[in-house]
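seq as requested:
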Amino acid sequence: MMFTKSDFTPIGRVTGPIVSNLPNSGGDIYLFDLDAITTRSHGHLEHSFAVYLEDFARRRPCYLLTRENYNNVVTRVQNGIRQTFAGIFAASGTELWVGQEIRVRSEHDFPDELYEFVVNVVQKSAYPGKLAPLIDNGAASLRICLAGTHSTVSQLKAYSGWEGEHQELPDIMREFQVRFPDYSIYQDTDTSLLVLPNSYSSALVQNSLLKRHKTARLICYLTERSVTGYADPLCNALLSSDIVSVVEAPSDVSQLLSYENRRHSGVEPMIDLHHSEYEEV
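struct tokens:
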């Protein structure tokens, strides 16, 4: 599935971009959602795909976007990828890391009453297997995982199954939105919620990229959860020449990168079509 910022055509199981009166492809930069390039939420990059992605990043500017903090990125992403990528937007884009140095950070002091609400949510949760710690606090982001922030895959799966039956998270989100209108809350996984102040917008990711690459076209590979969640402001801020591919797995990303390699080499034909809405394949 593709976002409505450009023209698209089917490529295998996913939808890929159509090249039509676009800037020189030498100005393209690439933004990858961490969850789109790993095998599952909280998973790691498979070795073969990591080698392929690192080779791609050596030839073109690539950035990583994730709702998780940088320490979690270090545990999930191989050092070669982290060093080869031009930057990593961590904590839902509120931080930009280049190498091992932080270059941009959005700061926000969450009010005590918001923390008290979160503590009460954790205490009142009916889930019998919840674990501590449950809160992951970034510089301007707050993530709440009722299964436990450092839960194992099996523990996360157990909570996800329980949540599917009891629908606890949507109730929490509705109450939060009423009590804290100056904040946005998203369900960023099957087991966790993400809180961001309205003073921050993921559209600032685009601003940061354009400062570093003034005439660049942005090509994004994002999960549907990100597109409909915290990355929605970023998608809405993109220029008409930019592209967002909504993908589900590393295999989708690999397929689209294969297309990008052919396009950059001049092998892929330039197709000229126009559609007013995104397509889903």
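The two ends are 6 Å apart (CA to CA).
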